[in-house]
Amino acid sequence: MALLEVEHLKVRYPVRSGWFRRCRYLHAVNDVSFQLERGETLGLVGESGCGKSSLGRALVRLEEPAAGAIRLDGCDWSTLKGRELRRFRRRAQMIFQDPYGSLNPRLTIGAALDEVLALHSKTGREERRERAARLLERVGLGADALERWPHQFSGGQRQRIGIARALATSPEFIVADEPVSALDVSVQAAIVNLLEDIQREDGTAFLFIAHDLAVVEHISHRIMVMYLGRAVELAESSTLIAHPLHPYTAALISAVPAVDAAGRRRIVLPGDVPSPLAPPPGCPFHPRCSRARECCRTKLPELTEVAPGHFCACHFAGETGT
Ligand code: SF4
Predict the structure, then answer these.
(1) What digits encode the pLDDT tens for the residues 116-173?
(2) Which residues contact 106 (CB under 8 A, 6 or more apart)?
(3) Which residue from 315, 319, 320, 322 has its CB within 8 A of the most atoms of ligand 1, so it is best to mutate?
């Protein structure tokens, strides 16, 4: 059984506008299904606003799903509440893009870690302090960091503290939401290496959200591409990069020469991403797709397995190998 099974997940936000403050819904995540194995890293890519972060936040219940199931070891935790939810929370944690924003500036690092440890364990203060020191050492910081304040650390060090905090509950699954986007390139590599070490040692599964395809390709076993709240392609990293089947994936890859070793011509997509408040009918990508045909305007393509382990949501995926 897969560690995580996500089925038909939907996340939506109410938006009130117009004279009568009519309520409409922005469908940030629309009918997304996938599985994640133990010790696997699934990269999640797509333009900003495509629903990557909403999906990640829903998986750790920082957003309430509007519909669908999120099963961890077979147990649907999308509807759990109270003590049961807290028990499950230990197993799924999140690392944020801006660790400074997620650290309380009025708490020392020791106090911030103790907050999490006290919430999820029954151990005494001294034992928790020793555990906090070990967590900091594990992420490459000395125990002296316990007495220091968030503003005394660099961006990379703060991300290490964010990782230590996520590890405090020994999670089996971590959502890393753009964890290196705000860091210098040299620091990015160190943080990616640290996450890989953690996975090797603990068997942790990661959903790694990023817009930098080069980083995602490096760290991920498989990659899922999202467009307007929907998963449009999912495959092993090397397969997806070498043989993208969805025209949107092909365009994303062609824009990153470092990733596109085949040196394909850059595909420039016409127009902008449509508003998720009013997604186009049929295939949501059809207004920008050079391969669109008549049926694309009316019929929504399902994410379908077109080759072993390679899923694509395009009516003509079998014909569109690039
Ligand atoms: Fe393009 Fe049609 Fe495929 Fe959508 S279904 S990606 S519009 S060819």
Answers:
(1) 999 888 889 999 999 999 999 999 999 999 999 999 999 999 999 999 999 999 999 9
(2) none
(3) 315
Measure 295 CA to ligand 1 centroid, in angstroms.
9
Q: Where are the alpha helices (DSSP H) in the chain?
A: 52-59, 82-89, 99-102, 109-120, 125-138, 155-167, 185-202, 213-219, 237-242, 247-254
The C-alpha atoms of residue 305 and residue 236 are separated, in whole angstroms, by 13
Which of 94, 72, 311, 62 is closest to 208 using CA atoms?
94
C-alpha span between 307 and 63 (Å, rounded): 33
* pTM of the full structure: 0.93
84-111 CB burial, b ≥16 within 10 A, e <16: eeeebbbbbbbbbbbbbebbeeeebbbe
